[in-house]
Amino acid sequence: MHLMVINASPRVKKYSNTDKILTKFLEGYSVSGNTYEQYEISARSSWDKIRAAYDTNDNILIAIPLYVECIPGLLMEFLETLSPKTGGKMSFILQSGFAEGVQLRCGEEYLKKLPSMLGMEYGGTLVKGNNFSIRLTEGKEQDSQTQPYRTMGEVFGRDGSFFSEECSKFTGPEAFPLPVRLLVGLMFRTGAKKAFTEAAASWGGTRPLDFRPYQ
Ligand SMILES: Cc1cc2nc3c(=O)[nH]c(=O)nc-3n(C[C@H](O)[C@H](O)[C@H](O)COP(=O)(O)O)c2cc1C
Question: Quick one: DSSP state of residue 58?
């Protein structure tokens, strides 16, 4: 089964969490002999090529990071340039920073409707959060976060969709219990804040994370 894959992150490939997720996912997808071609929405100069591939492929996967509760504006801009097709299947990976499944459900609802607007069948959405730090890690630490997507790639290679029980369970908890939510809040003010501050400094950032230049 051949798959056209679009990384819908506005971040360039090198810094994109979605890219690291796709690498593992497509490893799994390929084990049974499946093939794919991959494109990046962040490379605006390649949009003509992506449109041409969309026109000729009938099995399309769009991998999307959640940006402000829904799909990134850059993907929206690209989608508006597509012409509806007459058939084929469109499936999605929707991934985010915050870990609870409930955070991604609004975006998922939109994705359920999108394929029919483009004349295609819906192949389901693999929904998963807790991906903030993938690009801040390397080697084994990064692998431990992305490896589970390999299994999902195998499942998608087998089923051609994300409707199985395995895919639903992959999301993890829909919402954390109150004590965990309080703990996460505390972490964002302490350990996580320190880690993000260090990451920003390592990229040359000199201002505090909550710096407000327009105030
Ligand atoms: C501008 C912006 C908005 C974001 N909005 C959300 C959000 O609403 N909910 C969430 O859980 N994560 C949010 N995130 C986190 C991203 O979904 C997450 O880090 C994702 O893995 C980024 O993938 P990428 O590096 O491929 O773009 C946001 C990140 C950015 C940069």
Answer: S
